[in-house]
């Protein structure tokens, strides 16, 4: 069958092939239109192909692709944008959805700082703008650079485009710091968005789906003249690098930014504790529909900047801020099918295929069903959820989503359940490779035992390997990984780094592959070459070891320092005994589950061989340790025990690590120093038995010069 075949005549195999073709054709059209501003097909033809894609998806909803054109607006970021390394990382925020989480946030802050429940602690609360994050660098008051957030460490240079936005001052007013890296959000008002779409429609051009997509697409235009014609706005909410402090509090700093000529949100308020924070949240929520621009929640920040500095950061979020999202929006629709996806760790994840429905302005056709217990109407402990109602194919289900959270199935309407609907039987074999899928005791998830022979696991591991927080190879995303794996070009991570040797010349050159050309092939090979030099923490994360996320990878990298030391330690811990095994388990933040997953991975023969082949192609960079030339504790292993009275345990740990020390959770022969407060028990006793030096909190503060 061909692309001319009527949709109702397509077989399932033909429909799958046609959806793949349409995804490629429409993606190319989007790149031409949105990225290069040079359309290659007419709007009428574009609309016809889009409609055909939607019709096939409606007839075969279970075939809908992850890169479906019906879910996409605009095109990818152009290669032409230069990269900018942020002087201070642009982090995301932790999210809260329930009112009780606001009090929990306040309690966490107090615990970390050692503040009593009745001690005064103020916060700022401001609308969370639904736009695109932007960093503006001013030197001597003059705008010299603008960059998108990107992956938090590296963004795209959009300086020429930012200069066209009227809200962004080219020169700051008054006495500005010599260096000010201003952070804020680019957005588009509802009125301007409607007017832009009217103009687009009048010219016969494509209209935008929503203000956020319009703002993002406009800021990323290669031609700044296009951006200049788009009605973009800007709110400043923070800063990165500073040559001098702006103020002593968040609220005063925002006022200082306003005095410098930066637009700030007038709804930002100072709140004295959780009750006032929630009151301001409700006030902003009540005005949401009349603001004239999109917001999706309220951001709370500790007001005192000295306390912000003490609180510091987790791996990807600050401890001193949180986004309180607005309630999830819901809709009812029909559950057409339940598909099983196999992840990189072998987890079988059920996905609901839904009759498309609009939820909060977004068309939703897929939703997570979590695991087999959730489908059956119970939690992992066997307790009833949804009053014990199970979920069946054919049911009418309530779908909800909040912000960017993956849509979920929340409830079932039993009154509309079809008579023929039968309980869903969760598979006990992997749908991808046929291997047994087992559920270990205490695990909520059933997992495929196929390992490397399972193509789904192999592909998902490769996708994880090239993901943004891992190797982040430009031009090699999920779609390219799937295609290269299918054709046998890439089977394991090491194959990526031999791609140029195998496919730059000869009969099967990458430049001759459909969708590729000489320039795009060259760009990919260059991007791969750039990633041969990789920081240790990124490599550990990229390996996709179960239980080992970004934060743990950074922790392990800091503790072991370089690849050879890390690898040697994993080998020495192979029998789960001995000093190296104890050392790994005693790292504050690791624990036995993660430790076993790490050691097991490096002892599996096939997995280890694959890792060794990969490492042979890489220049693995050791961790850049804190500057500790004058530190009295650099390189020492320290244990804190008992009650600390002048700083919290978390604060003491962070201070020790900043001085180059290693903090352990238990005392061993490798421990150099124990800091014992009142109530120190078995750890202090063991330190005495082992002859480990023990000091009190005052002695610790004198030692590090904080007394």
Please explain how this structure is put together.
With 707 residues, this protein is an alpha+beta fold. It has 6 domains: 7-71, Helix hairpin bin (Helix Hairpins, Orthogonal Bundle); 83-325, D-amino Acid Aminotransferase, Chain A, domain 1 (2-Layer Sandwich); 329-416, Nucleic acid-binding proteins (OB fold (Dihydrolipoamide Acetyltransferase, E2P), Beta Barrel), CATH 2.40.50; 451-531, Orthogonal Bundle (DNA polymerase, domain 1); 535-621, DNA polymerase, domain 1 (Orthogonal Bundle), CATH 1.10.150.20; 637-703, BRCT domain (Rossmann fold, 3-Layer(aba) Sandwich), CATH 3.40.50. α1 packs antiparallel against α2. The protein is globular and about 80 Å long. Mean pLDDT is 88; it is low at 33-39 and 73-79.
Concise summary:
By secondary structure, this protein is an alpha+beta fold. It has 25 helices and 24 strands.
Describe how the helices and strands are arranged.
Blueprint: H1 12-35, H2 43-59, E1 83-85, E2 95-96, H3 100-113, E3 122-129, E4 132-139, E5 142-148, E6 154-156, H4 159-162, E7 179-187, H5 190-202, H6 211-219, H7 224-228, E8 233-242, H8 250-259, E9 269-272, H9 274-286, E10 295-302, H10 305-311, E11 321-325, E12 329-342, E13 348-359, E14 362-368, H11 372-376, E15 396-401, E16 408-412, E17 437-438, E18 447-448, H12 455-465, H13 478-486, H14 493-496, H15 499-503, H16 518-530, E19 533-535, H17 536-542, H18 550-560, H19 563-572, H20 578-586, H21 592-603, H22 605-615, E20 619-621, E21 637-641, H23 649-658, E22 662-664, E23 673-676, H24 682-690, E24 693-695, H25 697-703
Parallel strand pairs: 2-11, 19-20, 21-22, 21-23, 23-24
Antiparallel strand pairs: 1-6, 3-9, 3-10, 4-5, 4-7, 7-8, 10-11, 12-13, 12-15, 13-14, 15-16, 17-18
